[in-house]
Every structure is written in C-alpha cells, then in structure tokens.
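CORE FACILITY INTAKE
Project code: CF-77B
Contact: R.S. (postdoc)
Sample description: multi-component assembly, two entities in total
Requested service: structural model of the whole complex
Turnaround: standard
Below are the sequence entries exactly as provided by the requester. Do not edit them.
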Amino acid sequence: AQSVTQLDSQVPVFEEAPVELRCNYSSSVSVYLFWYVQYPNQGLQLLLKYLSGSTLVESINGFEAEFNKSQTSFHLRKPSVHISDTAEYFCAVSDLGDNQGGKLIFGQGTELSVKP
Amino acid sequence: DGGITQSPKYLFRKEGQNVTLSCEQNLNHDAMYWYRQDPGQGLRLIYYSQIVNDFQKGDIAEGYSVSREKKESFPLTVTSAQKNPTAFYLCASSIGPGGPEAFFGQGTRLTVV
C-alpha cells in the first residue's frame, strides 16, 4: 500500500532563512502529489500540486516543490520564510494505481516554526 | 460560495454514546473523504466514497460508520465501539477519485467527557 513519509516532525527556522520540508512516498507508479498547509484549529488548504508535466511546481506565496520520480520524493522549499509561514505542512499522495481508488494518503506532518 | 461545511465545530460526547458529524459540499464533487487527525500522526483515512451509494473503508474504519445517500452529504457516525474517539475530524471532497485535489472543511473537534 502507498505510504508517505515526512522526514522531519518539527523544523525551527529564523525569519528570512531558507527552508526545506522533506517528503518521500513509497511507490513510483502513477501518482498525484500535493502539499497542504494547516493553521491551528482549521482545515487544510492546498499549497501546490504536481499532476504531470514540469517536475518543478510553484505556489503563489513563494513555495516550490520538485517531483523526483527516481527518488520518489516531493520536497517543499522556500528561499526566504516569513513569520506568517508558521504552520503545519502535510505532504499527500493520490495513488492512481489499480485497486487504489485514488485514495489520498497523507504524511505525518511537519510543524514549521519561524522565529524572528 | 462553494465549499465544504462541517458541523458542529466543537462536539462533546459522553462515553457510550453514538454521535454523528455532518459534512455537506456544494462543489458537485463525486468523491468525499473522512480523516481523523491526532497530534503527531498526520491525517488517517477513516472512510471514503467515490460515488453516491458507495463507500469504502479506509485505514482506521473500526468504530465508525458512514452513509452516502446524496451526492452533497457524507455524514460520519462515531459509535460507542470506537475506543478513543477524542480527535479532530476533517471531511474533504474532490471532483473524482484521486482528485486531482481535495478541498477540506474546517473540521470538527470531538471530545469525549
């Protein structure tokens, strides 16, 4: 079965520093890949997605992620973080393989804490 | 505005009681999902439905039940058989199975007292 591993549960970083949140998934068959962000006591909001085409995808607020099929990874990066980026970030995979029904599977989450 | 509405936002339940969490969407999406969120464990899939009158168990379905009688609605019942029901519950929907992306409600926080 498909699984998603976020390698860091907590990432503290200073404001304006770069950050990378790591995500690996278990299977290289046809998948969609997503990053979601969650603020306290709220639902999840889509940050960016990879469906096909260019392996580098970007969000409107400066985040980017690169799909690496050979390493089954989809790491999230931002060159300069802001205090407002403090939140929990979830990597997710939608497995389009047979018998999976397109289930959306999430990683354990990474808590990004941006300090002044 | 289109979206997903979960109600109530906060819910308290006595031990031994069943409770139903509501999830309604007006996005005309075929697929709907229920997730449970606990600190440090991410989101775990409880049940999902790809189409009306059909649903499948997720990874942690024991102690839960669902129905999908209408495209817009996917209620989740937490039964007394669920041993540790206190959690944050999130409902989501997508155009079809697998997405391409899921839209989430604001969640229901269930506390057993």
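Facility notes:
- The longest strand of chain B covers residues 87-96.
- Chain B touches chain A at residues 4, 6, 31, 33, 35, 40-45, 48, 50, 56, 58, 88, 90, 92, 94, 96-107, 109 (CB under 8 Å).
Invoice: internal transfer
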